[in-house]
Amino acid sequence: MAFTLMPKEMKFFDLFDQQASNAVEASVLFKELAQSGKFDDDGVRRMRELEHEGDTTTHEVIDTLNRTFVTPFDREDIHALACELDDVVDLIHSIATRMRLYRLSEPDPDLIQFAEVIEQSARAVAKAVNGLREIKRPRRILDYCIEINRLENVGDQLREAAIGKLFDGTPDPIAVIKRKEIYEVAETTLDKCEDVANIVESILVKQG
Fold it and tell me: What pTM was estimated for this model as a whole?
């Protein structure tokens, strides 16, 4: 039997795909909760389970990295990609948790818009990450990264418009503080998706 030091590189790609799929699932659940306005105990529990699943997969990536001699691309990029993907789910979980803590139970059209864009971005992230399996065909991967960047810009515009509306009339200052924080975390979630895209683009450049 031939002996080789080469690792089973597919392990990393499988784990990245798991992380990205988990982010998509979290974004779908978040949109469901935003549309209903019911960030109740059950919804937040389901989101927490996804967050814990993401943590577990991230730890597995790092453990595999520590035990692997030869990696498919730079170790620093593997570590960064795993952590940024995990952060996407952490932020979505954070929004859901705050919605329940702040007792914001009415459907919010602006938050629903954010949820839709976050889901689109998470799906583009999943496709970009999956494309790393065929890194010698970068064009499609770059297209997904461009889409993620576009959606981040949409998020900036949504945040500005949503926060602007909070100051219409004579708003309750506490309600303004709560909603403003929620919108800012939602926009940060899209920033984090863009961070993932930037790492993917960096990997493509190094491997090109």
Answer: 0.93
